[in-house]
Amino acid sequence: MARYHLERLSVMLVEDNAFVRDTMANLLRSFEIRKLVTCENGVQAIDFLKAAGGPNNPGGVDLIISDLIMSPANGLLLLRWVRAAKESPNRFMPFIMMSGAADNDYVHAARDMGVSEFLAKPFSVDSVYKRLMELIDFPRQFVTTHNYHGPDRRRRNEPAPNNVERRETTEDDITIVYSGEKKKAKTDSGVWYFRLPNRLKDKVGGMGMKGGGSLPQDLLDQAEQELERSSASFHDWALEYLSQLSNLCTEALLAPGARGDHFHKINLLAHELRGQGGTFGYPLISIFGKMLYECTVEGCKETDAAVEVVKAHIDAMRAVLREKIMGDGGVLGRELLQGLQLAVKEKTGQVLKVDDQDQGW
């Protein structure tokens, strides 16, 4: 396989969590990506893209990697702007959405707005690398209709189940163009296919190449080492988040009847812990963070017992960090999980279940 040169790419990284942003930026630099624009939220990203646009290098950016849940403008709003706004420098921009809340609703929302790839947190060197290679080696044609503009949501040209084609039009009815501009057609079915030159592949040194390319193993090893270095800082970062959760519990108990804001903030912190633990070798933090996230979604109970449930999650995660339980935790990990489930059942009568793919054991 040919060797790709990612230093020729310009990448925008949008992430509101400074620790995660620095970690992902260092990982990308390990892939030899040197032209890296970092933004804290969708508003900063849009402002940069507006200012840096140009006909030869749209937005000064070749692809975007963005977190989903951010404020004041989240990843979905940024994606919608890139795909639909008149000021967008490139409506065909490759776009990777990443989030710890990689649930069906979020994945479908991103897909329906035209995302290119979805990167679930916790991420790994391998998952980030595979998403980048997918963009370079297998770009999908863009589809434009009256209510959608984005990559073809069918990744491969395969028939639908039972050989039933769900689309009302065939390719003979579709206007196909090979540039980024619509061209006047004799008959317009309202469906356009844009089969554009593979700009990313050409830029990284794959021009004329029939097969895919790759990065040398030493760069991937370097990225793994960079992620391990970041893992050393995760312990303190996570403890700070747990301290914030504990303070929110104390404040919530003093404000019966007015806990909506407290639980909203708890949910956001749980989302961060859910998304990061596994990245830094603490999958139990991700599992407990996900459980807490699901306990505190909008509309959850805000009783004293609900606050005690939050405290039980905090205690379990502190135990993971205190004992430095990395990986699945073995017997001790099982005991912590079972203890947390028992504590929640005693306080609320609710049985918290964990997906098999989350457990890792």
Using the CA coordinates, give the radius of gyration.
Answer: 23 Å
Q: What's the structural domain tally? A: 3
CATH level 3 topology of the largest domain: Rossmann fold
> What is the total tally of β strands?
11
Which series of helices and strands comes N to C?
A: EEHEHEHEHEHEEEEHEHHHHHH
Structural class: alpha/beta
Low-confidence stretches: 160-167
Largest sheet report? 5 strands, parallel
Major β-sheet strand ordering: 3-2-4-5-6
Distance between the termini: 35 Å
Short description:
The protein is of the alpha/beta class and 361 residues long. It is built from twelve helices and eleven strands. It has helices at residues 18-30, 42-52, 75-84, 104-112, 125-137, 199-203, 217-253, 260-276, 283-295, 304-322, 330-348, 356-359; strands at 2-3, 10-14, 35-39, 63-67, 95-99, 117-120, 142-144, 149-151, 175-177, 192-194, 213-214.
Would you give an account of this structure?
The protein is an alpha/beta fold and 361 residues long. The protein has 3 domains: 2-137 and 199-215, Rossmann fold (3-Layer(aba) Sandwich), CATH 3.40.50.2300; 140-197, no CATH class; 230-359, Four Helix Bundle (Hemerythrin (Met), subunit A). The chain has 12 helices and 11 strands. It has helices at 18-30, 42-52, 75-84, 104-112, 125-137, 199-203, 217-253, 260-276, 283-295, 304-322, 330-348, 356-359, and strands at 2-3, 10-14, 35-39, 63-67, 95-99, 117-120, 142-144, 149-151, 175-177, 192-194, 213-214. α7 (217-253) runs antiparallel to α10 (304-322), α8 (260-276) runs antiparallel to α9 and α10 (304-322) packs antiparallel against α11. The radius of gyration is 23 Å and the shape is globular. Mean pLDDT is 87; it is low at 160-167.
